[in-house]
Every structure is written in structure tokens, then in C-alpha cells.
Write the C-alpha cells for this entry.
Amino acid sequence: MNDYDNVSAYGTTRGRASTLSPYLNFDPSYLDTQQPEFIFPEGASRQRGRFELAFSQIGASVMGGATIGGATGLYNGIRQTALAGHTGKLRMTQVLNYTMKQGANVASSLGVIAVMYSGTGVLLSLARGSDDEVNTVASGAITGLLYKSSAGLKTCLKGGAVGLALTSAYCAYTSDRIRNFFK
Amino acid sequence: MEEYSREPCPWRIVDDCGGAFTMGVVGGGVFQAIKGFRNAPSGIQRRLLGSLVTVKDRAPIVGGNFAVWGGVFSTFDCTLVYLRKKEDPWNSIMSGAATGAVLAARNGIPAMAGNALVGGVLLALIEGAQILISKIGSEQFKPASPMDLDYVKGFAEGSQQ
């Protein structure tokens, strides 16, 4: 007979009390295993702030734009050089030029849009003191207006409307608050 | 918590690319704004317009160059971390050299070697400055050695008679 035969898992029946751990004598209903338990530093919020997410959003836009633009440029380059009848090293150089030029253009355009969106989002959340979907929608609209601001009033307003529509759709699709509001 | 502010390695590349792009756009934007302002015809409205047009044209290009540099550097850095299984300044220096070489690849081998040297030296300077700053910053946490206290010194000397 070993020492632990007449002891339950929580040590409520004390056989050889001196060999038991002092940590085993509590009521297990004190443990709340439904909610995930995380440790947060002082004053930290539950979600990642806008500024932390900003760089990865910008980087993802740049890299995604480079991929899309590069693929488009590759396709165009191969078509154009085939039409023009180029071969060999000249063709390779031309295709490379098309790819890199188109890739750089789309990458920097998407990157600038991402910088504007993140920048206005961070500024709005600092100015308002709180972070919610209004910031997202407003910075989307402002980005659209700003990006097309030098192309005339009508295009500017169209850009703002596109930005507003995109961010509103994103918020309607992913935001928990708006979903609960409509339940 | 400073040590957790950087993402783990594959996602670090995207972060660094974005950070470099932002630096390029903001810095390049300021620089090109001043350049465009100065190169425009006289009259404040034309100068401001010239500044705006130059920023619109050139700042994304500068941002793109910075982003390419940052992305390639971070890729090499993460590759070296994976191969060497440790994180130290040597990774950064070697990545800087490799990035310089890769970005000059269109200009032939001597240009690649020269650019690699410049990149490596630049990163060595940056890492050296970081090590210096962290060394100076950690002086405030140095525990006092008991041998420095006066009565202990006197005690030690006295006991040697």
C-alpha cells in the first residue's frame, strides 16, 4: 500500500498530510476555465493599437502591390515583346523592365494609400482619445479624398466615396459592435 | 516590453518593409517638397504648386526604394537568424553587405563588391552605435561592488598587516 491510496485528487481526504503539496487543497470551482486568461501589463489595452498594426498593413500593401504589379507587368511584357518579335537577351531585358516598372508603380501607389490610411487613423485616434470603427471609416474617407485631391473636385469626391464605401463594408463585415447592434 | 515589440521572423519582413516605406515616403516627401519649392518659378502659389507636384511624383519612388532595401535586408537577416540560430549584430552587418550587393546586381561584379562594402560598413556603424548606447544606458543599473566601500577597504588593508 503506497502513501497516496486514501487521498483524492484535491487532497480533501488527508492521509499522509505531510507528503501532500499545499497547492492541492482548494475548491476547483474557483478556477474559471471558460475565459482565456492573459496577463496584460499596466494600462495596456486588449487589442493591438493602430500604430502597431500600421507598419504591417503598410508592408503588406507594398508587397501585395509589388506582386500584383509584377504579375501584370510580366504578362504585358511577354505579350508586347512577342508582338514586337523580340528574342533572346533583348526580350529578357524588356520583360524585366516591364515587370519592375509596373511592380514599382502599383507597389508605391498601394503603399501611399496605406500610409495615408494608417496615418489618418492614428491621428484621429489620438485626437478623439478612443479607438473604434468611426476612426476606420473616417480615415478611409479622408484617404480617398486626399489621394485624388489633385485631380479636380469631381474625382476627389468620387475617391472619397470609394474610400468611404470600402471601409464601411469592411467594418460592417468584421466589426462585432455593429453585428450585435443588428441582432 | 521591448523584447516583444518586434514580430517573429517571417512577419518581421513585412513589418520592416512597411517601416522602411513609411520612412522613405515621409523623409522623401519633406526633401522633395523643399526641392520642388526651390525649383518652382517665383510667386508663393506657383512655388507651393511646384512643391506639391514634385512630392506627388518623386516621394513614392523614394519610398519604394527604401521599401525594397528594407525588405531585402530583413529577408537576409531572418535567413541568417534561421541558419545561425542566434541573433547578434553580425547578422545585421552581413545582411547589410548582402543587400548592398544584391541591389547593385545590374551593374556588374565590381559595383556589387563596392556596394557590399559600403552596406557592411554602414550597418557596422549603426550596430556599433547601438551597442555603445545600450552599454552607457546599462551603467545606471550596475550594482555597487562591496569592495568599493570605504570601511571595507580599510578593513581589507588593516587585515593585511
Notes: The radius of gyration of chain B is 24 Å.
